[in-house]
């Protein structure tokens, strides 16, 4: 456990005039702040020191392979040196490893991470609590480092990770024998998209390691991080990070593979990328077994040399053994003719399972290279798990989100020889090469004026050269089991289930709420009042609709899975997938936040998994990881990377930190850390470079807006400061808060401001003007500002934010009275901004403001009062029958959902009588 010391978040020495709220009811706190803290304490259930844990999907997993999770703690409850103990439902102490993820301003633990070893007795309910000591695993995991390798011993398997060369996973041993060896990454690329463009030259690349480091070395869990590139000849590209996870007592290892596309989309057409390894084959051909998991617990299982269905019978015991995956009886017990003529039975060396689309997979096999393929089986959705081996050992392998990330493929080659070769293709080479070129020729748009015409017509913010995929990324999750023998059919099905839905421990919604993390803008579902019940019904309906929409619209695929569409086309009965900025959503107006707050308050597994897929997608495909746009995200478009609006509002840690803290996922941690200096991009890629009537930045290095830019940066810095304690990020937040709070009209002056990346200072360039944008508060600003205010705040910032919250939806007369002029954005996203009014009402304890907030919320805003139903469209009107809700848009769904959740939490005790139906 790394230990950090903390001072108050805003210490007086570094922030003149700052008001620390490190202690509840501190004498220096404002009256409104003290009242707010008291309200939080009253509404949140008290914790008694420990926490109940539950499995996300409800039941304890059938396989105990080791698990990692994150857990929050209330401020002041757990010191950095605290030790924790874990018990299952029977009160039995379980081994566990713990480490800190984040800290409160007073230095106490805010988030901890914990890991279980494999093979321990699990229960549906478990509990964790502070203790004097943690139970040690029966056999501690051991990591040994040398100059050229890292060796990890789980007590069951020993894995050798190379520090150089082309084979990151050099070998996996079990019981003194190699089970897996020569694990390497492979890629295939074409120089043209297809043969119609001319002869295609294909290049095969192998991994080349640049470094391998031990990220974590504990008695229960170890993590090895391997970095490198793909290389062929003199060319190196496709940088990768390969993390290999180990748990004590495990016969499996988890692999998280991440790569960045750094090619030229006009020349580099990536066809396949995968993980390849060898499996030594020691058993007789009839004792070698091939398995592929199928749908609904099904299994395709055969021998390399099949002994069933022959003209001559080897015997019932022989057939049963091979069918079950056991070693067959000795040859002397086989039927005479089979025993003597066995060499006339074909041995099938090569197998492929390819999932070419979300609803279609095929299994084929052949005897060996140079001979024809035989179709073996077909199905709809494969879970992506296979096995090759025999009575003396083998490897089970699986790729998560297999059919969801199509086209994908599992290859087994040469299983009739001394070493079978397995390739888990994260992108199938049998599919057409990826064509990542921009989808149109610019349509004659050469100037910003012409580009704005395009924006006016198709909502697409086009700019030549900006719609590039150079720098986007994708991660894939794999599992490998080093097995002593062919697993039973039932056990391999359990493995497939564990690959597709990895067991995840979570806290209860009550614990998340009581711990005070992620602010006080949410509460638990409450149906005790008709109005509350109606809002809860609508929240459920909206999520369930999008969950079903992913399925019926087939929002699947390698680059697409995890995102949703932006706007519906009621005439075509289809989402506007081909219309400029109306296509993929790319986190527009914060659907990510709606999903995560929905999970926190309900604990629903389906919401968590939906949000998890979105995190993986938006943090990688919608965000640049190298190149000129590094650290920026891309606004909504027909292609995920197509829009020229490259902004911090999409890449922000505000959308990622929920998943990171609840799972301790190192990859998301890396991505959030990579965003820390993205403010240095604000001048080179100015978000408002095309817009007229923008104030000049004057002498300042850049300009930004307080919501879509500064709030996004603040989320990055807050997350890093909580994780690492680096004061420079706390100080950048503080300077910006003080500067915005000191502007003539507060946030209405900061609609556009000058900015200095080196120091974090924000400057007024608006003079005495008051301006507002409907976008500034809808990309995480509301949520991040509420957390900052609860942690401790410069008085001017809180005062200015409350003024903004109160006046954004206020009447024009009220704006003129307080600001001297209207701010110009009245009634824009009225429902979404009702939560700002509610926040002001809550902080000021103003019943009149609370009633105004509910009136704004119930005003409709495109669909707020639409009936909770879909309509079926079928026949020649559509390709496939669909259940549609033409009134739904993702913008309005996300903002209505956040407003509903936050208004219920803040002013739920001041509800009107009924919701319009």
Tell me what the structure shows.
By secondary structure, the chain is an alpha+beta fold. The chain has a domain at 282-436 and 472-500. Helix content is 26%, strand content 26%. It has 20 helices and 39 strands. It has a 20-stranded antiparallel sheet that branches. Strand 24 and strand 25 form a beta hairpin. Helix 18 (830-844) runs parallel beside helix 20. The longest helix has 23 residues, at 530-552. Mean pLDDT is 92; it is low at 1-47.
- Main pleated sheet: 20 strands, antiparallel
Determine the N-to-C terminus distance. Answer: 54 Å
The unreliable regions are: 1-47
Shape: globular
For the secondary structure, the number of strands is 39
Mean pLDDT: 92
Helix-strand makeup class? alpha+beta
Q: Supply the number of helical segments.
A: 20
Radius of gyration: 29 Å
Helix percent reads 25-40%
Strand content: 25-35%
Question: Brief overview, please?
Answer:
This protein is an alpha+beta fold and 917 residues long. The protein contains 20 helices and 39 strands.
Topology summary:
Elements lengths: L18 E2 L10 H13 L7 E5 L11 E6 L10 E5 L5 E2 L2 E7 L5 E8 L8 E7 L10 E4 L3 E5 L3 E6 L6 E6 L2 E14 L11 E16 L3 E12 L2 E13 L4 E9 L8 E12 L7 E6 L5 E5 L12 H9 L11 H6 L8 E8 L2 E7 L7 E6 L5 E6 L2 E7 L8 E6 L5 E9 L20 H11 L14 E11 L5 H12 L4 E3 L1 H7 L14 H23 L15 E2 L4 E2 L15 H12 L2 H16 L12 E2 L11 E2 H4 L5 H7 L2 H8 L28 E3 L1 H19 L2 H15 L11 E4 L4 E4 L16 H11 E2 L1 H13 L4 H8 L10 H15 L2 H11 L13 E3 L8 E3 L5 H18 L10
Antiparallel strand pairs: 1-37, 2-8, 2-29, 3-7, 4-5, 4-8, 6-7, 9-10, 10-11, 11-12, 12-13, 13-14, 13-18, 14-15, 15-16, 16-17, 17-28, 18-27, 19-20, 19-24, 21-22, 21-26, 22-23, 24-25, 25-28, 26-27, 30-31, 32-33, 34-35, 35-36, 38-39
Helix pairs in contact: 6-8, 7-20, 8-9, 8-20, 13-14, 13-15, 14-16, 16-18, 18-19, 18-20, 19-20
């Amino acid at each position: 456990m790394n230990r950090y010391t903390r001072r108050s978040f805003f210490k007086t020495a570094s922030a003149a005039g700052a008001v620390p709220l490190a202690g509840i009811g501190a004498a220096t706190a404002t009256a409104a702040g003290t009242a707010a803290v008291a309200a939080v304490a009253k509404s949140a259930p008290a914790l008694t020191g420990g926490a109940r844990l539950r499995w996300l999907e409800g039941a304890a997993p059938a396989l105990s392979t080791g698990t990692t999770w994150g857990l929050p703690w209330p401020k002041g409850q757990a010191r950095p040196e605290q030790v924790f103990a874990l018990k299952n439902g029977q009160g039995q102490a379980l081994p566990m490893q713990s480490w800190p993820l984040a800290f409160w301003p007073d230095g106490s633990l805010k988030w901890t991470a914990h890991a279980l070893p494999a093979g321990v007795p699990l229960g549906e309910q478990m509990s964790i609590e502070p203790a004097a000591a943690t139970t040690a695993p029966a056999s501690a995991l051991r990591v040994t480092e040398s100059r050229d390798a890292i060796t990890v011993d789980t007590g069951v398997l020993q894995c050798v990770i190379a520090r150089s060369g082309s084979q990151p996973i050099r070998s996996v041993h079990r019981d003194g024998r190699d089970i897996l060896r020569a694990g390497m990454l492979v890629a295939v690329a074409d120089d043209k998209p297809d043969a119609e463009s001319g002869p295609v030259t294909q290049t095969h690349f192998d991994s080349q390691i640049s470094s391998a480091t031990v990220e974590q070395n504990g008695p229960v869990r170890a993590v090895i991080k391997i970095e490198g590139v793909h290389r062929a000849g003199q060319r190196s590209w496709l940088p990768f990070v390969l993390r290999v996870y180990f748990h004590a007592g495990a016969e499996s290892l988890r692999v998280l593979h991440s790569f960045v596309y750094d090619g030229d989309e006009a020349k580099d057409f990536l066809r396949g990328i995968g993980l390849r390894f060898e499996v030594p084959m020691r058993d007789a051909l009839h004792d070698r077994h091939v398995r592929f998991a199928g749908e609904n617990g099904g299994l395709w299982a055969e021998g390399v040399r099949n002994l069933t269905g022959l003209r001559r019978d080897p015997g019932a015991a022989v057939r049963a053994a091979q069918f079950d995956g056991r070693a067959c009886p000795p040859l002397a017990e086989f039927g005479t003719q089979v025993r003597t003529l066995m060499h006339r039975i074909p041995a099938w060396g090569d197998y492929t399972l390819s999932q070419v689309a979300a609803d279609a997979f095929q299994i084929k096999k052949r005897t060996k290279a140079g001979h024809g393929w035989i179709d073996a089986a077909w199905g709809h959705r494969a879970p992506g798990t296979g096995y090759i081996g025999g009575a003396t050992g083998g490897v089970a392998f699986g790729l998560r989100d297999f059919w969801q990330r199509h086209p994908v493929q599992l290859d087994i080659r040469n299983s009739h020889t001394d070493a079978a070769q397995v390739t888990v293709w994260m992108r199938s080479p049998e599919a057409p090469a990826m064509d990542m070129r921009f989808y149109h020729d610019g349509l004659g748009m050469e100037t910003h004026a012409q580009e704005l015409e395009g924006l006016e017509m198709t909502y697409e913010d086009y700019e030549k050269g900006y719609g590039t995929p150079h720098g986007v990324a994708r991660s894939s999750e794999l599992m490998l089991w080093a097995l002593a023998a062919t697993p039973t059919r039932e056990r391999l099905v359990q493995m497939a289930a564990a690959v597709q839905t990895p067991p995840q421990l979570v806290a209860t919604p009550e614990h998340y709420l009581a711990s005070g993390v992620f602010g006080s803008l949410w509460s638990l579902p409450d149906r005790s009042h008709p109005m509350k019940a109606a809002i809860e019904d609508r929240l459920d309906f909206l999520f369930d609709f999008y969950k079903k929409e992913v399925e019926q619209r087939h929002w699947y695929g390698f680059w697409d899975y995890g995102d949703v569409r932006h706007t519906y086309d009621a005439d075509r009965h289809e989402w506007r997938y081909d219309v400029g900025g109306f296509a993929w959503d790319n986190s527009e107006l914060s659907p990510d936040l709606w999903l995560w707050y929905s999970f926190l308050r309900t604990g629903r597994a389906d919401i968590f998994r939906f949000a998890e897929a979105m995190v993986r997608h938006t943090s990688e495909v919608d965000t640049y990881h190298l190149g000129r746009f590094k650290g920026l995200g891309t606004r909504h478009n027909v292609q995920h990377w197509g829009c020229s609006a490259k902004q911090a509002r999409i890449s922000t840690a505000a959308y990622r930190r929920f998943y990171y803290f609840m799972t301790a996922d190192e990859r998301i941690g890396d991505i959030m850390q990579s965003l820390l200096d993205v403010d240095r991009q604000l001048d080179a890629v100015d978000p408002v470079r095309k817009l007229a009537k923008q104030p000049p930045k004057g002498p300042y290095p850049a300009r930004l807006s307080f919501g879509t830019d500064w709030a996004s940066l603040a989320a990055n810095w807050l997350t890093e400061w909580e994780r690492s304690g680096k004061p420079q990020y706390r100080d950048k937040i503080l300077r910006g808060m003080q500067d915005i709070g000191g502007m003539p009209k507060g946030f209405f002056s900061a609609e556009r401001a000058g900015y200095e990346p080196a120091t974090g200072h924000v400057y007024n360039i608006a003079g005495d003007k008051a301006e507002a944008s409907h976008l500034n508060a809808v990309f995480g600003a509301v949520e991040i500002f509420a957390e900052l205010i609860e942690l401790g705040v410069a008085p001017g910032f809180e005062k200015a934010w409350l003024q903004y919250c109160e006046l954004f939806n206020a009447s024009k007369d009220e704006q003129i009275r307080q600001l001297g002029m209207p701010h110009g954005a009245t009634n824009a996203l009225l429902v979404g901004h009702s939560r700002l009014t509610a926040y002001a009402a809550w902080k000021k304890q103003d019943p009149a403001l609370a009633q105004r907030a509910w009136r704004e919320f119930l005003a409709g805003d495109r669909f707020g009062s639409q009936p909770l139903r879909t309509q079926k469209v079928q026949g020649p009107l559509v390709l496939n029958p669909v259940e549609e809700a033409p009134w739904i848009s993702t913008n309005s769904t996300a903002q209505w959902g956040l407003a509903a959740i936050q208004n219920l939490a803040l002013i739920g005790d001041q509800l009107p009588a009924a919701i319009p139906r």
